[in-house]
Amino acid sequence: MILVTGATGTTGSEVVRRLLERGEKVRAMSRRGVAVPGADAVRADFADPASLAPAVAGVSAVYLVTAPPEPVVDHDAALVEAARAAGVERIVKLGAISGGEPGTWHRRCEQPTRDSGLTWTVLRPATFASNMLPYAPMIAGGLPLPDWTSGGAVGIVDPRDVAAVAVEALTTGGHAGRAYTLTGPELLTFAQQVAVLQRVLGTGIGTRDATMDDARTMMLDRGMRPDSVEESVAGMTRLAEGGYAVLTGDVSAVLGRAPGTFAAWAADHRQAFGGAGGTRGAPSAADTP
Ligand SMILES: NC(=O)c1ccc[n+]([C@@H]2O[C@H](COP(=O)([O-])OP(=O)(O)OC[C@H]3O[C@@H](n4cnc5c(N)ncnc54)[C@H](OP(=O)(O)O)[C@@H]3O)[C@@H](O)[C@H]2O)c1
């Protein structure tokens, strides 16, 4: 049995789908305990360690997704502790590209997994292409998208590739003690991502420059803890300075094929940019590397 945490989320839902496709036994965990055909569903919360014991019982491997804001490091520690107590053998931990730098939020989140004594693999993806999805209502409404990045480029990655790498690490050998930095095939600034999206959607999309102070204010207004806001701003600043303008061959090395392009991701999600909904005022903590 493989436990997939964050099973309702961007990569977790895709990991569940791909594992089931391979005929694996899957337990899908989230706080909502959403039913997934073909998988066990379990409702558990990292903030409630007692709820984790039934989630890890009888499990051999865990896909570990915790989501900022704080106290997310405690969430990682709680799951790892429960996994060790239950005799889990392997953990594949979703982190972020910033985990490559000591002292960062994501590096601290990796630590319980790395110290677990279990077989572990850490995934450090760059910005997900899917971060564009919450902008769909603004695009539909003709509103300019806020650009916090000051022209900093990222190796934007298709989250389906992240999930595919996770499935390999969960089900095949050769990934123990590895930290994979997962990028797409090209470095793109936010403006370049928007240009690709415009081309694919055949619609005009405006952008407007936004400052880190705007971002800080909006995250605080949304009720994020001040320490989480500062962690997020640090990641966003690093990105704006070009600190995540990195491309690696890790997706190709694990999957044996090139990573997907942002244009291909956009083409596959054209429909999602037609809908309505709330407008997005600020980046979410989980969107920052
Ligand atoms: N977005 C990006 O560009 C990006 C890039 C690199 C790395 N990352 C990292 O990837 C991770 C996931 O971020 P994401 O935006 O993709 O989120 P996500 O996986 O789409 O959503 C978070 C998932 O975690 C579950 N969850 C949240 N709080 C929980 C709790 N207390 N206990 C149990 N389950 C909980 C949620 O389900 P319920 O609400 O149903 O519980 C949901 O399934 C984060 O660490 C983020 O920093 C993101």
UniProtKB/TrEMBL annotation:
InterPro entries: Ergot_Alk_Oxidoreductase, NAD(P)-bd_dom, NAD(P)-bd_dom_sf. Residues 6-171 form the NAD(P)-binding domain. This is NAD(P)H-binding protein. It comes from Nocardiopsis mangrovi.
